[in-house]
Amino acid sequence: AMALKDGEILLLENLRFHAEEEANDAEFSRALASLAEVYVDDAFGAAHRAHASIEGITHYLTTRAAGLLMEKELHFLGGVLASPAKPFVAIIGGAKISGKIDVIESLLTRADRVLIGGGMIYTFLKAQGYEIGASLLEEDKLDMARALIARAGDRLVLPTDTIIATAFNNDAERRTVPVTAMPTGEIGMDIGPETEQRYAREIAGARTIVWNGPMGVFEMPNFAHGTLAIANAMAAATATGATTVVGGG
Fold this sequence. Notes:
This protein is an alpha/beta fold. It has helices spanning 19-22, 26-33, 68-82, 101-108, 121-127, 142-152, 193-204, 225-239; strands at 38-41, 63-66, 88-92, 113-116, 156-157, 161-165, 174-178, 187-191, 208-212, 243-247.
């Protein structure tokens, strides 16, 4: 590395091919540090991970800095969450409540509306006593879901319809049903069209919007519609001057 000329770049192979990276191995961190004199982290989306190239390496280099993208992300997110222009709407999706509970609790103290999508929908619905068929359920989070619903009142917005399928694959037979009328045996896969329109209206009326997590099983084209609808609504809101932030893995 020290033989590099001005303007040259040395690109390493993907570090995750080495088990030591995610294990935050000290020797591996030291080896990475030996390649450089200055460390700059510009990977905001990974900055919370205790990995060798993120946390470990910093113990072996004295000059350490955040990159320009990191600065921009922190400025944006910091500003948005510290003093958001109102109305402030948050959209939270993803498979599980457990992974997002702190985010939801934090947003419920700040946002005017928190719109819920993704697999976590069904634990919330089950907590309200509805049938959810073979949909994803976090049994141990039912009490927490009930408590969130009770505390949030109308700030927490749940889907009114859902797309269900006979099996967890793209080509399974699918149909739209109200969340109050899910049959046993079938699986919730996405938010329904009525919910898409309700959520799009909330987004259109907002000045600040934060989105984290998909609305359904977006990896399968037939169940990506809800997620794409939110993306389109976000784009339209951005075009009319709202501040929009999209984050997540």
